[in-house]
Every structure is written in C-alpha cells, then in structure tokens.
C-alpha cells in the first residue's frame, strides 16, 4: 500500500508564459512547491527538471516536451497539458517512461468555432480589407461588393474534421442557414458526410479543424487545394502544417482561393518578411482563435483540479496515453 505523500513534497514545474505571481496564486493553495524555468527555451526547461514530479506543459507549443526532456526528468510522475493539442509533446517517449499525460479537452471548442465564424464573415464581406482602405483615406463603397460579398446563408460550408470544434462549427453555420457538409476519419451520426474530393470541389467555404497527425500533415497540399471550387474561402483553425503556407499562397495567387483566414502557420511566430503578411486576401491571426477569457478560465480550472487530484492521490481526468490515472511519486512507487 502506498502511503500518502505530503503536498509540500510535490515539485511542480510550470512552463506556460503566465506571470509567476499568477501561477503562485493558482497553485500555492494546493501546498505544492512551484517552479518556473529560468529562461523560456529548451535549455531552461532541461535545467529545471531535476527532482520535478509534475510538469504543466506550455500551451503555446514554444516549449515542447521531447525525448531529451523526458530523459532529464527522472522523477516525472505526471504531465498536464493545458490545451487540447498534443503535437509538441513526445507521447511515445513519455509513455515508454511510464508518465501519464492529460490534456484539457473541450475547453476552447466554442472560442475556436466562433473565431472560424467571425473570420468567414470577415472574408465574405471584406471587412478588414475595407477597414484598411478607409484608414488610407479611401471610400471603397462599391469595391467591397465587387470583391465578391456573400451572405453566408447562401453558401455551402465544408468542414474538415468533425471533433468537438468541427461539430460546433457545423452548428453555428447551420444556424445561419448555410448548407454544411463534412469529412472526418470517422463518420458521425450528425451532419452530412462526403468524401474529401467532393467537399473540396463543391464547398464555397472550407474550414480546417483536423488534428495534426502524420496522416494529416500536408493534407491540403497544392494538389488538393487545386481541387477547390474557384473563388472559395479557406479558414484554418487547426495547424499550419495541415495546409502548408506555400500551397495556400499559390492557391491565392492563382485565384483558386478568393481569400484565406489563418490562425496557424508552419513556423510560429510567422517571420517578419513572410509573404503572407503582405497578401491583401489573407486575414492573419496569431494562434489565438481559442483564447478567450472564458476558455482560459476553463483551461486553468481543469489544470488546477487535475494537479490537486494528483497530489491528493485521486484519479486525474483526461489521460491520453493509456496509463493509470492515479499519480504516484517516483520515490513511492517501489
């Protein structure tokens, strides 16, 4: 039988870019010993891992957790990821090391879906484009219509990926009267499933909600984007590697795409001189589609509760790598 471990003996390393005093406000009431890396880089992470029992991952993805970090964290008993996506974490190495990993599913579903809707509105009515012309002194009263202004209720929307975000996107667009179809690796009981090629060739708006996996990397390559209905709009709220930047640019320059709204890119932050920054038909966002006050509250509430459960010896929620949900300090396991 495993004896209860005093909370003060649990060392927690927090990697998100959150003010240290705010982190202490959230985690000090748990009675744990909280640490942050001295520098926000891989060397800073590796230097902070000695004797750490629990790691709270970086939701920005800047500080990943790869095999070298797993090897350096000899005492790591639990990794809590304060987001849904796991692509910057080496799950294979963590699982091999016996480290349970949990995420926070569903916390930003509504936020991302609303951003996808807002971005589609913007592209459809050239809202940001007209704002730029107005600030330059122009009056583009008729130009916005000439650019292809559309009411979304008359458009066909194709969703790639029907997880929780895709499902919420479908619900929002259907409420506007849009015709909605989807493709996903697994068919759902709700919605209208079509094959990828049909979705690409018939949709006026395509919204990317797929997780990044080896199968979805470069999913919307140049060949697939060339299948899109001429004048279509692309909205990517997933990962930049799914729709490579160069392929999107080529589709825009060819006229195949009338516009693109991008919250994600192959390399983040997007470089200062990247051609996407200068393209008139692109709406740019900085990987913030899921960041609302409400979603952040949900993320931290779920994260704090899971750390509380871990140090209390209760099962944690949302383990993603098939290991046990009751967390045991390494020096208590034998």
Name the structural class. Answer: alpha/beta
Largest sheet: 6 strands, parallel
Topology, number of strands:
11
Question: Strand order of the main beta sheet, please?
Answer: 7-6-8-9-10-11
Which residues form runs of ≥5 with pLDDT under 50?
A: none
The overall pLDDT average reads 94
Give your account of this protein's structure:
By secondary structure, this protein is of the alpha/beta class. The protein folds into 2 domains: 140 residues, Rossmann fold (3-Layer(aba) Sandwich); 176 residues, NAD(P)-binding Rossmann-like Domain (Rossmann fold), CATH 3.40.50. Helices cover 33% and strands 13% of the residues. The strands form 2 sheets. A 6-stranded parallel β-sheet has the order 7-6-8-9-10-11, sandwiched between helices. The chain has a 5-stranded parallel β-sheet with strand order 2-1-3-4-5. Helix 5 packs across helix 8. The longest helix has 20 residues. The relative contact order is 0.14.
């Amino acid at each position: 039988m495993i004896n209860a471990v005093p909370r003060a003996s649990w060392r927690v390393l927090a990697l998100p870019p959150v003010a240290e005093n705010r982190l202490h406000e959230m985690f000090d009431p748990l009675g744990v010993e909280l640490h942050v890396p001295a520098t926000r880089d891989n060397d800073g992470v590796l230097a902070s891992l000695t004797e750490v029992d629990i790691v709270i991952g970086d939701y920005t993805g800047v500080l990943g957790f790869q095999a070298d970090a797993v090897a350096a964290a000899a005492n790591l008993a639990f990794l809590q990821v304060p987001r849904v996506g796991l692509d910057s974490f080496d799950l294979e190495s963590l699982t091999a090391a016996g480290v349970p990993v949990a995420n926070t599913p569903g916390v930003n579903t509504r936020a991302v879906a609303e951003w996808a809707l807002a971005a589609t509105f913007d592209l459809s009515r050239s809202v940001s484009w007209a704002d730029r012309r107005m600030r330059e002194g122009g009056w583009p009263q008729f130009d916005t219509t000439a650019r292809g202004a559309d009411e979304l209720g008359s458009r066909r929307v194709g969703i790639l990926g029907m997880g929780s975000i895709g499902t919420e996107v479908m619900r929002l667009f259907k409420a506007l009267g849009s015709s909605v179809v989807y493709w996903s690796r697994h068919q759902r009981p709700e919605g209208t499933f079509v094959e990828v090629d049909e979705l690409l060739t018939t949709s006026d708006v395509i919204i990317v909600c797929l997780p990044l996996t080896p199968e979805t990397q470069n999913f919307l390559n140049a060949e697939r984007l060339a299948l899109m209905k001429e004048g279509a709009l692309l909205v990517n709220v997933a990962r930049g590697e799914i729709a490579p930047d160069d392929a999107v640019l080529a589709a825009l320059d060819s006229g195949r795409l009338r516009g693109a709204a991008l919250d994600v890119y192959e390399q983040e932050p997007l470089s200062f001189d990247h051609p996407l920054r200068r393209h008139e038909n692109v709406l740019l966002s900085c990987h913030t589609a899921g960041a609302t006050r409400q979603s952040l509250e949900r993320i931290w509430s779920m994260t704090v509760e899971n750390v509380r459960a871990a140090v209390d010896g209760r099962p944690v929620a949302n383990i993603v790598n098939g290991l046990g949900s009751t967390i045991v300090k390494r020096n208590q396991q034998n």
